Amino acid sequence: MIDAIIALSVIYKGFDNNGGFQKYLDMKSPNLLGAVFLFGLLHGFGLSTRLQQLPLGDDSTGILLRILSFNLGVEIGQIVALVVMVALLSLWRHKPSFPTI
Which of 20, 38, 57, 83 could lock 15 by a disulfide, CB 3.0 to 4.6 Å apart? Predict the structure, then answer.
């Protein structure tokens, strides 16, 4: 269920980013801070379901280390993805096709 809600949150944000609320619903976009909080919470639930699938073991030290490793991996993955996207967009920004698209 959480995965479906995460997919809907991505669709919602795409609708918002393309001006859907103003264009089709004739209203202002909902509060961005509230949406970011809610979507972060939902995406965190999605990650926690993935964490539940990992073999964590029985000892409390091992569990803590595995949870921290999982979270650190997720954060590093997000940073790497962001760096790659920003680099590609920076390179593309200097191409003639950028303003058109």
Answer: 20
The two tokens of residue 51 are: 């964490």
**Do 5 and 47 have their domain in common?**
yes
Boundaries of domain holding 71: 58-101
Degrees to nearest 5, angle at CA 51 with 45 and 53: 115
Q: Are residues 20 and 45 in the same domain?
A: yes
Closest CA to 12 of 37, 33, 30: 30
Same domain (yes/no): 44, 69: no
Whole-structure pTM over 0.70, yes or no? no
Distance CA 75, CA 78 (A): 5
Number of domains in the chain: 2
Distance between CA 62 and CA 69 in Å, rounded? Answer: 10
CA 14 – CA 71 distance, rounded (Å): 26
